[in-house]
Amino acid sequence: MKNNCFNSGLWQRIFPEAIPPGISIVDMIDRYFLAYNAGRLREVCNVMVEKIFRDDVVVGMSLAGAATPAGLGSSCLVPMMADGLIDYLVVTGANIYHDLHFALNLPLYRGSPFTNDSSLHRQGIVRIYDILMEYKVLATTDHWLVKALGQREFQTRMGTSRLHWLLGRRVHEAEQQHGTSGMSFLAQAYRCDVPVFTSSPGDSTIGLDIAALNLTGRDIQIDSSIDVNETTAIVYEAKKNIGKSGVVIWGGGSPKNFILQTEPALQEVLGFNIKGHDYFIQVTDARPDTGGLSGATPSEAVSWSKIDPDMLSDAVVCYADLTIIMPLVVAYLREKGVRRDNRRLYQRLPNLVDGLQKAFMEVKDFIQGKRSVDETIRFLRGDK
Asked: What structural domains does the chain harbor?
């Protein structure tokens, strides 16, 4: 054979042997996940091990969908935080709310998606597809939340990272009380000082409880601009002083956009001469042609300056159910022994934002309108 393409070593022949009994997860993925989205999963694992989870890469992770009721908080997020693989996290408020059930030892059950919902309603049972729980699980969680959020330390203006750190401390105490240590990712984030952000803080039962408390005279103010500046400051620090920035996106939704918008914030709004994220991994079952993945495929994200165009070859999208893929990825990483020291970014947030503000003051002409539209376009394109 003389074909240079096949003989270059870049392409590998698909010629697998029979899967042996007792095969490890690493061998299974490396040797038998050969094509289609199985092949993309192998690429996800390889890029993570070889490039993303390195000491000079700050890794942000986002998670949408009802993942924690399915147990992915304790099974996947907790060990990844313990292994230093999540530097900051953006999730839906619902994922945090349902995470609390596990810390409070409130049971959720595997059921059927074909159960009669009218019958469930009469029995006081709530269904999340094939996950079932008694309504008193929600009521007990709300009671715990209202009692916690009513404390003096929450009566202030703050971003969601502060809100979740304060809640995480109380969840950590609840785990000790109920004998459920290691079941809550929010408690683990508190222990590891991993900042946890919610892009839509009012869009969950936690937001409903805060709103109800404010009706009684409490004064809990969640300021999303604090979150925007803190996440932007993290990425600025990553690009300027640490090395590179990587994002791992589980699902899509608002958390996906929030974690990606740090780059337009730095370039388009604040005027820094910084390229987009260096590494991009997404696991999603959404489609770009219906708008469900709009602006978030790697190539589209390049056009928004969200991803460095020179690093596009290291961007991988696996079109699959994250509840299948996430446990496989975590098992692969743990078997490979991939670990890093925790950066403990939560404790550093005030200094990071201060550094961002000082740097911005040097380029503030951009946001004050002193740069023309044409100059702005040339700047974003990197023209001299």
From this structure: 56-381 (3.40.910.10)
**Is residue 306 annotated as a catalytic residue, yes or no?**
yes
Q: Please give the average per-residue pLDDT across 339-353, as a whole number.
A: 98
pLDDT above 70 coverage of the chain, percent:
91
Output the pTM of the full model. 0.92
Tell me: the pLDDT tens digits for 21-60?
999 999 999 999 999 999 999 999 999 999 999 999 999 9
Return the pLDDT at 3: 58
Catalytic residue chosen out of the listed positions 244, 256, 275, 306: 306
Three-class SS of the chain: CCCHHHHCCCCCCCCCCCCCCCCCHHHHHHHHCCCHHHHHHHHHHHHHHHHHCCCCEEEEEEECCCCHHHCHHHHHHHHHHHCCCCCEEEECHHHHHHHHHHHCCCCCEECCCCCCHHHHHHCCEEEECCEEEEHHHHHHHHHHHHHHHCCHHHCCEECHHHHHHHHHHHHHHHHHHHCCCCCCHHHHHHHHCCCEEECCCCCCHHHHHHHHHHHCCCCCEECHHHHHHHHHHHHHHHHHHHCEEEEEEECCHHHHHHHHCHHHHHHHHCCCCCCCECEEEEEECCCHHHCCCCCCCHHHHHHCCCECHHHHHHCEEEECCHHHHHHHHHHHHHHHCCCCCCCCHHHHHHHHHHHHHHHHHCCCCCCCCCCCHHHHHHHHHCCC
Q: Alpha-carbon distance 30 to 15, whole Å?
A: 13
Give residue for tokens 């202030």: 156
The conformational region for residue 260 under phi > 0 = left, psi -120 to 50 = alpha, else beta, is alpha
For the chain, give the mean pLDDT: 91
Q: What is the mean pLDDT of residues 300-305?
A: 74
